[in-house]
Amino acid sequence: xxxxxxxxxxxxxxxxxxxxxxxxxxxxxxxxxxxxxxxxxxxxxxxxxxxxxxxxxxxxxxxxxxxxxxxxxxxxxxxxxxxxxxxxxxxxxxxxxxxxxxxxxxxxxxxxxxxxxxxxxxxxxxxxxxxxxxxxxxxxxxxxxxxxxxxxxxxxxxxxxxxxxxxxxxxxxxxxxxxxxxxxxxxxxxxxxxxxxxxxxxxxxxxxxxxxxxxxxxxxxxxxxxxxxxxxxxxxxxxxxxxxxxxxxxxxxxxxxxxxxxxxxxxxxxxxxxxxxxxxxxxxxxxxxxxxxxxxxxxxxxxxxxxxxxxxxxxxxxxxxxxxxxxxxxxx
Length: 332
Ligand code: SD4
Description:
Substrate binds at residues 219-222, 242-245. Strand 9 and strand 10 (301-305) form a beta hairpin. The radius of gyration is 19 Å and the shape is globular. It has an 8-stranded mixed β-sheet. It is α+β, with helices and mostly antiparallel strands. Helix 3 (54-65) runs antiparallel to helix 4 (70-83), helix 4 (70-83) runs antiparallel to helix 5 (127-137) and helix 9 (253-262) packs across helix 10. It has 10 helices and 13 strands. It has helices at residues 3-8, 13-26, 54-65, 70-83, 127-137, 145-154, 165-175, 245-250, 253-262, 267-280, and strands spanning 46-50, 104-109, 115-121, 142-144, 192-197, 203-209, 230-233, 237-243, 290-296, 301-305, 311-316, 319-324, 326-327. It has one domain (33-327): Glutamine Phosphoribosylpyrophosphate, subunit 1, domain 1 (4-Layer Sandwich), CATH 3.60.20.30. The longest helix has 14 residues, at 13-26. The structure holds N-hydroxy-L-asparagine. The site of N-hydroxy-L-asparagine has 14 residues, from strand 8.
């Protein structure tokens, strides 16, 4: 049942009342007066994503350049990485938790503040598409674990073994020491967060990951948490995050960045402030990476990270490039 239909159905008022506050927190209805003024010639269409996932931005661009929606573009775009078995932090081929479960987290958010999310999803290679189904076909926002998996089967998704030969071998090797460490930029995290603006000027975003490799079973990071790993406000812009999710959640990073842009900061300034807030809470810690990426309604983009090494991909009428991002620390 479609969410709107569900909410209109008065016989389901109890469930609607339960879901209403969550929906309200996703729909941003704040006043327009603080929104940065739009320039006469915004850059659009445009797509950006965390890290150098150029096949993903190319796919999203294919959708956008044909007049497709930002929502379709981000879903199609991040699915490229979910399908890539060589990417060992997203989708099929993602590394498992310490008990050997491959569990995926993803979310998606559209121009109207609708959003959907799946956490701890197993055996399904495209969590972002399940998240979109949660958004469009249920009155809810987040489905977890077995329920999310069951829902995916009901929606026609196929059961798949998400391990690859490579990740199985690495896991067997890891078990010899069972040491949990977050190696900076060394790909035990490489989440894809993607933000796009379509021809109409509407913004959408998606984020998908297998989370931190060898995490405690049951752990969920920032990536599927609306406001933490991703946030979109069609009046202002969008933001997404990569890196150690615990730190992003503690500052509700992506929501913070969008709100900073609402108050007049550029995407670059907002990302810098977001990282600085995190570092203010971690004065003596240098052992983790966070990368923020943001776009505003004008199609201006920016990024900032804790340690050097984070880049983002951008595809717009100006070209397709990998953008180096400035960092809080100069050396890791
Ligand atoms: C998480 N933020 O699960 C994700 C991991 C990540 O690049 O971003 N990897 O905490």
